[in-house]
């Protein structure tokens, strides 16, 4: 499976939904708090993402919790 990074901020309901979704599917991911990691925040913004969460699957940046795009990228039906 492709490596997954989940860029989050504290107290974000969509970030929590993304984490719960990955947990429900037994999908491992690396969580990065962009409020503490300024370089990660710049990387997200460089790819056109201005909100949270941001999901990085392999080389594919997904802005927001877009379950359809996440499933497509992971090959989940």
How does this structure look, described?
Helix content is 38%, strand content 22%. The protein is an alpha+beta fold and 77 residues long. It has one domain (13-74): Glutaredoxin, CATH 3.40.30. Strands 2-1-3-4 form a four-stranded mixed sheet, sandwiched between helices. A hairpin with a 2-residue loop joins strand 3 (54-57) and strand 4.
Structural class per helix/strand content? alpha+beta
Total domains:
1
Strand runs, count: 4
- Largest beta sheet: what is the strand line-up? 2-1-3-4
CATH structural fold name:
Glutaredoxin
Shape, principal axes of CA atoms: globular
Average pLDDT, all residues: 96
Portion in strands: 15-25%
Q: Specify the oligomeric state.
A: single chain
CATH superfamily descriptor: Glutaredoxin
What is the helix/strand order? EHEHEEH
**What is the terminal separation in angstroms?**
15 Å
Number of helical segments?
3
- Classified by CATH, the class is Alpha Beta
Low-confidence blocks of residues: none
Helical content band: 25-40%
CATH architecture: 3-Layer(aba) Sandwich
């Amino acid at each position: 499976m492709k490596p997954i990074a989940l860029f989050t901020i504290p107290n974000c309901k969509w970030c929590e939904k993304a984490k719960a979704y990955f947990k429900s599917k037994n999908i491992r991911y690396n969580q990065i708090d962009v409020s503490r990691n300024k370089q990660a925040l710049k990387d997200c913004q460089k790819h056109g993402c201005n909100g949270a969460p941001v999901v990085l699957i392999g080389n594919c940046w997904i802005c927001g919790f877009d379950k359809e795009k996440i499933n497509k990228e992971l090959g989940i039906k």
